Structure formats: structure tokens, C-alpha cells
């Protein structure tokens, strides 16, 4: 039930968030194009992530999927909340993010250890949340992880 509540709120809020809060232009890139990047690159890994999870690129929200690729954090509701904690630790701040963290913490108090661990990992990494990932799709994913000290949960 708690996952249903958060997923419903997300589905209601996604379009307004994309329209009014995300100022970056959409990437207009397909999974097929991403999979043409060399196998070690962020572009290829992003394409694999999207394909594996049966996702398609969401205009203006592409960075979100990149964060999954770089942090190796899964896509369950509690893992999505954990990723927001990771990004908070990394210095990212938005009203949307704080809302997810607030509601997620209320609904998933049993996951507080995971959330704290995620926050600490994000804090330990160099700031990476603000990068222009479209320009980094050709970079080896491991180089990005090493350069920014991004560790998996």
C-alpha cells in the first residue's frame, strides 16, 4: 500500500515537475542510439539500464536514470527514496527531492538504515549531481565512478 501511495503521487506530479521545474532541454535520444556507444561508456550502460527495466527516456528527466547507473541503486520504491538520500548527501537540493525524502521516510521507517547509508555514500562522493550527462555519454562509466568516488550501496 505504501508503495502504491508514493507511485500514485509520483505519477500525478511527474508532468508538472517536468514542465515547470526542469529547465534543461530534453535529450531526444533513443535507447537504440545509446546502445551504439562503446560498451564501457555511460551511454551504453544507460541504454542497457533502460532496456533491462523496460523504461524509455523521460524528457528532461534523463539524469535520474544516469544516477541509477552511476550509483547502482535499484528501482524499487524504497531504493528510489534511498537514491534521493544519496543525492541529498551529494549536495542536490530541490523541493521535489525533499518531498520524496519526507514522505518516503514517513512511509518506510523500516528502511532508515538504508537511507542513512545512502546519505553517507553521497556525502563521501565528490559532487556529481550537477553534471551535464548528455555531454558525458561517451565517457567510460567506471572513470566517472572513480573520478567522483561514487560507490554502490
Would you write up a description of this structure?
This protein has helices at 2-21, 31-34, 42-52, 62-71, 77-89, 95-107, 112-124, 141-147. With 153 residues, it is an all-alpha fold. The chain has one domain (2-6, 30-147). The longest helix has 20 residues, at 2-21. The radius of gyration is 15 Å and the shape is globular. The two termini are 25 Å apart. The model has no long low-confidence stretch (mean pLDDT 91).
In terms of topology, how is this protein built?
Blueprint: H1 2-21, H2 31-34, H3 42-52, H4 62-71, H5 77-89, H6 95-107, H7 112-124, H8 141-147
Helix pairs in contact: 1-6, 3-4, 5-6, 5-7
Mean pLDDT: 91
Tell me the number of strands: 0
DSSP helical segment count: 8
Low-confidence stretches: none
Q: Strand-and-helix sequence, N→C? A: HHHHHHHH
Q: How much β-strand is present in the residues?
A: under 5%
Oligomeric state as shown: single chain
Percent range of helical residues: 55-70%
Shape: globular
Structural class: mainly alpha
Largest sheet: none
Q: What is the alpha-carbon Rg in Å?
A: 15 Å
Number of domains: 1
Distance between the termini: 25 Å
Amino acid at each position: 500500500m505504501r508503495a502504491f501511495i508514493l507511485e500514485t503521487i509520483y505519477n500525478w506530479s511527474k508532468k508538472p515537475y517536468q514542465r515547470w521545474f526542469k529547465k534543461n532541454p530534453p535529450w531526444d535520444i533513443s535507447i537504440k542510439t545509446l546502445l551504439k556507444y562503446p560498451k564501457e561508456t555511460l551511454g551504453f550502460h544507460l541504454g542497457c539500464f533502460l532496456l533491462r527495466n523496460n523504461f524509455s527516456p523521460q524528457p528532461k528527466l534523463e539524469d535520474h536514470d544516469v544516477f541509477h547507473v552511476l550509483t547502482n541503486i535499484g528501482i524499487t520504491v524504497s531504493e528510489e527514496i534511498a537514491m534521493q538520500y544519496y543525492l541529498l548527501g551529494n549536495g542536490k537540493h530541490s523541493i521535489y527531492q525533499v518531498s520524496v525524502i519526507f514522505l518516503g521516510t514517513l512511509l518506510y521507517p523500516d528502511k532508515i538504515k538504508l537511507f542513512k547509508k545512502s546519505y553517507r555514500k553521497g556525502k563521501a562522493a565528490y559532487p556529481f549531481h550537477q553534471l551535464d550527462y548528455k555531454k558525458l555519454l561517451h565517457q567510460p562509466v567506471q572513470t566517472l565512478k572513480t573520478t567522483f568516488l561514487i560507490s554502490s550501496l
